[in-house]
Write a structure and sequence with these properties.
mainly beta; paralog of FGE (formylglycine-generating enzyme); 1 helix; Sulfatase-modifying factor 1 (C-alpha-formyglycine-generating enzyme 1); formylglycine-generating oxidase activity; transferase; SUMF_dom; CTDL_fold
Length: 148
Amino acid sequence: MSLPTEAQWEYAARGGRQSEYLWGDTLLEGGYYHANTWQGRFPYENTALDGFIGTAPVYEFLPNDFGLYQMIGNVWEWCRNPRYTLLASFNEDDYELPKYGIQDEEYAIRGGSFLCHCSYCNRYRVAARNGCISTSTSSHLGFRCLKE
Protein backbone atom coordinates (compact mmCIF):
# COMPACT_ATOMS: atom_id res chain seq x y z
CA MET A 1 0.00 0.00 0.00
CA SER A 2 1.28 3.48 -0.80
CA LEU A 3 0.27 7.05 -1.49
CA PRO A 4 -0.60 7.98 -5.07
CA THR A 5 1.67 10.11 -7.21
CA GLU A 6 0.19 13.43 -8.31
CA ALA A 7 -0.59 11.96 -11.72
CA GLN A 8 -2.40 9.01 -10.15
CA TRP A 9 -4.27 11.32 -7.76
CA GLU A 10 -5.39 13.62 -10.59
CA TYR A 11 -6.52 10.71 -12.76
CA ALA A 12 -8.61 9.37 -9.86
CA ALA A 13 -9.98 12.82 -8.98
CA ARG A 14 -11.07 13.54 -12.55
CA GLY A 15 -13.12 10.36 -12.65
CA GLY A 16 -12.74 10.15 -16.42
CA ARG A 17 -13.66 13.81 -17.07
CA GLN A 18 -11.54 16.65 -18.46
CA SER A 19 -13.40 19.49 -16.75
CA GLU A 20 -12.05 22.29 -14.56
CA TYR A 21 -13.72 20.89 -11.43
CA LEU A 22 -14.41 17.23 -10.78
CA TRP A 23 -18.18 17.82 -11.20
CA GLY A 24 -17.94 19.93 -14.39
CA ASP A 25 -16.96 23.44 -15.48
CA THR A 26 -19.43 25.53 -13.47
CA LEU A 27 -20.13 26.20 -9.81
CA LEU A 28 -23.45 25.93 -8.03
CA GLU A 29 -25.79 28.92 -8.00
CA GLY A 30 -24.21 31.63 -5.88
CA GLY A 31 -20.69 30.44 -6.75
CA TYR A 32 -20.57 27.50 -4.34
CA TYR A 33 -18.61 24.29 -4.82
CA HIS A 34 -19.88 20.70 -4.75
CA ALA A 35 -17.43 20.11 -1.89
CA ASN A 36 -16.76 20.80 1.78
CA THR A 37 -15.33 24.33 1.64
CA TRP A 38 -15.36 27.48 3.74
CA GLN A 39 -18.53 29.52 3.24
CA GLY A 40 -18.86 33.03 4.56
CA ARG A 41 -16.24 35.72 5.24
CA PHE A 42 -12.86 34.04 5.58
CA PRO A 43 -11.40 33.81 8.19
CA TYR A 44 -14.00 35.55 10.35
CA GLU A 45 -17.22 33.62 9.81
CA ASN A 46 -17.93 30.19 8.39
CA THR A 47 -21.67 30.06 7.73
CA ALA A 48 -21.44 26.30 7.12
CA LEU A 49 -23.94 26.42 4.25
CA ASP A 50 -22.72 22.94 3.30
CA GLY A 51 -23.58 21.72 6.81
CA PHE A 52 -20.01 21.50 8.16
CA ILE A 53 -17.60 23.80 9.95
CA GLY A 54 -14.71 21.32 9.90
CA THR A 55 -14.26 17.99 8.18
CA ALA A 56 -17.31 16.20 6.80
CA PRO A 57 -18.09 12.46 6.88
CA VAL A 58 -17.12 10.64 3.69
CA TYR A 59 -20.53 10.15 2.09
CA GLU A 60 -21.87 13.70 2.53
CA PHE A 61 -21.04 14.84 -1.02
CA LEU A 62 -21.68 13.00 -4.27
CA PRO A 63 -18.89 10.76 -5.62
CA ASN A 64 -17.13 11.36 -8.92
CA ASP A 65 -17.70 9.11 -11.93
CA PHE A 66 -15.20 6.55 -10.54
CA GLY A 67 -17.21 6.34 -7.30
CA LEU A 68 -14.60 8.21 -5.21
CA TYR A 69 -15.84 10.60 -2.55
CA GLN A 70 -14.46 14.02 -1.58
CA MET A 71 -11.52 14.22 -3.94
CA ILE A 72 -11.96 18.01 -3.70
CA GLY A 73 -12.40 19.89 -0.42
CA ASN A 74 -12.57 18.44 3.09
CA VAL A 75 -8.82 17.74 3.55
CA TRP A 76 -5.69 18.20 1.46
CA GLU A 77 -4.35 14.80 0.40
CA TRP A 78 -0.66 13.84 0.47
CA CYS A 79 0.94 12.58 -2.72
CA ARG A 80 4.09 10.48 -3.02
CA ASN A 81 6.21 12.86 -5.06
CA PRO A 82 7.98 16.04 -3.95
CA ARG A 83 6.14 19.30 -4.60
CA TYR A 84 8.51 20.76 -7.16
CA THR A 85 8.74 17.68 -9.33
CA LEU A 86 8.42 18.36 -13.05
CA LEU A 87 5.51 16.05 -13.73
CA ALA A 88 6.50 15.43 -17.34
CA SER A 89 9.77 13.83 -16.19
CA PHE A 90 8.49 12.16 -13.00
CA ASN A 91 9.24 8.46 -12.53
CA GLU A 92 7.22 7.01 -9.67
CA ASP A 93 9.85 4.33 -9.00
CA ASP A 94 12.38 7.04 -8.05
CA TYR A 95 10.51 8.28 -4.98
CA GLU A 96 9.66 6.86 -1.58
CA LEU A 97 8.20 8.86 1.28
CA PRO A 98 10.53 9.22 4.27
CA LYS A 99 9.86 6.50 6.83
CA TYR A 100 11.40 8.01 9.97
CA GLY A 101 13.11 11.16 11.15
CA ILE A 102 12.77 14.79 10.25
CA GLN A 103 12.70 15.66 6.58
CA ASP A 104 12.77 19.17 5.16
CA GLU A 105 11.43 18.28 1.74
CA GLU A 106 8.03 19.51 0.62
CA TYR A 107 5.72 16.86 -0.77
CA ALA A 108 2.78 17.49 -3.06
CA ILE A 109 -0.72 17.81 -1.61
CA ARG A 110 -3.85 17.98 -3.73
CA GLY A 111 -7.57 18.68 -3.50
CA GLY A 112 -7.95 21.68 -1.19
CA SER A 113 -9.61 21.55 2.22
CA PHE A 114 -12.50 22.83 4.31
CA LEU A 115 -10.38 25.93 5.05
CA CYS A 116 -10.01 26.97 1.41
CA HIS A 117 -12.14 29.95 0.37
CA CYS A 118 -12.60 31.55 -3.04
CA SER A 119 -11.12 34.85 -1.77
CA TYR A 120 -7.62 33.37 -1.65
CA CYS A 121 -7.64 29.73 -2.70
CA ASN A 122 -8.43 28.28 -6.12
CA ARG A 123 -7.36 24.77 -5.15
CA TYR A 124 -10.69 23.19 -6.05
CA ARG A 125 -9.58 22.92 -9.66
CA VAL A 126 -8.54 19.34 -10.25
CA ALA A 127 -5.22 20.44 -11.80
CA ALA A 128 -4.26 22.77 -8.90
CA ARG A 129 -1.06 21.86 -7.03
CA ASN A 130 0.27 22.70 -3.59
CA GLY A 131 2.87 21.33 -1.19
CA CYS A 132 3.65 20.88 2.48
CA ILE A 133 6.71 19.97 4.58
CA SER A 134 6.66 16.20 5.13
CA THR A 135 6.48 16.49 8.93
CA SER A 136 3.38 18.74 8.90
CA THR A 137 0.18 17.73 10.65
CA SER A 138 -3.16 19.50 10.62
CA SER A 139 -6.90 18.92 10.88
CA HIS A 140 -7.21 19.77 7.19
CA LEU A 141 -4.44 17.48 5.93
CA GLY A 142 -4.98 13.79 5.25
CA PHE A 143 -4.21 10.97 2.87
CA ARG A 144 -5.83 8.44 0.57
CA CYS A 145 -4.10 5.12 -0.07
CA LEU A 146 -3.49 3.80 -3.54
CA LYS A 147 -5.05 0.43 -4.27
CA GLU A 148 -2.48 -1.51 -6.27
